[in-house]
Write a structure and sequence with these properties.
The protein has 236 residues and is mainly α. It has helices at 18-33, 42-49, 63-75, 96-99, 104-116, 121-127, 137-149, 195-233, and strands at residues 40-41, 79-82, 91-94, 155-157, 169-171, 178-181, 187-190. It has a 3-stranded antiparallel sheet. It has a two-stranded antiparallel sheet with strand order 4-5.
Length: 236
């Protein structure tokens, strides 16, 4: 599978929070594995995000958190609501095939990376096979390279973790996760903190600094005013 000769890609990659990556990953997975239950209700999508298999790390998201993530994804044009005839509840589906220009095998690999974090080519070959039947490991790696060579890149490769030689692929819709060694000796990848939280903290610090500057200016203004009044009294 080689699309290097095609002009494919998007203008920019949206930056997603961890919850948004789990929601969009679950939507893609269910589209490919259980199309009869797709699009998904809020309850079904929440259960999919929190399922115990094929997820790393495990989550316990509430419907309100998933609904907020859907709203954020809707703003970023990666998901939208669908009102089906005869359905009493709204359904939701992703829009990655259009907004990220992804064909089925690419969506399968991206879903695995979104739902499970960084993985080797071999792990992806095994795990993504339930969503798309690849023609062996070389087909998987060709597809991953196509995603990496796009502008901007949708996936990247991590340097080998200490004591290991294999390299892992990761999606670039969020900052790369941080590696930690578990007690069992297996690698654990911790999702990076949401950049927006850091931005809010920075804004809070900026507001505190501005308040301190305003207070200092007010004090200086009072001193100047008092000095001017004393100066005027000399001529009264």
């Amino acid at each position: 599978m080689d699309f290097n000769d095609c002009d494919r890609g998007v203008e920019y990659l949206p930056s997603l929070s961890f919850t948004e990556t789990r929601v969009i990953g679950s939507l893609i997975e269910k589209e490919l594995t259980t199309p009869e239950y797709y699009p998904m209700s809020l309850n079904g999508l929440t259960n999919a995000c929190n399922q115990k298999n094929n997820r790393n790390p495990k989550t316990d998201l509430g419907e309100d958190e998933v609904a907020q993530a859907i709203e954020e994804l809707r703003i970023k044009r990666l998901a939208h609501r669908v009102d089906l005839v005869g359905s009493r509840v709204p359904k939701f589906q992703h829009n990655c095939e259009k907004e990220l220009d992804l064909i089925k095998p690419e969506r399968a690999l991206l879903a695995e990376l979104l739902n499970r974090g960084p993985q080797t080519s071999g792990e992806l070959n095994t795990r993504a096979s339930r969503m798309f039947e690849f023609d062996g490991l070389s087909d998987v790696e060709d597809t991953l390279r196509d995603l990496m060579q796009r502008t901007p890149s949708l996936v990247g490769q991590m340097d080998p973790i200490p004591g290991r030689k294999e390299r892992r692929w990761f999606h670039q819709l969020a900052p790369p996760p941080k590696f930690e060694e578990s007690n069992q000796g297996s690698p654990v990848f911790i999702p990076s903190a949401d950049k927006r939280l850091d931005q809010v903290e920075d804004m809070g610090n900026d507001i505190i600094e501005l308040k301190e500057e305003v207070d200092a200016l007010r004090y200086q203004l009072r001193e100047i005013t008092d000095s001017f009044r004393e100066f005027r009294k000399q001529f009264e």
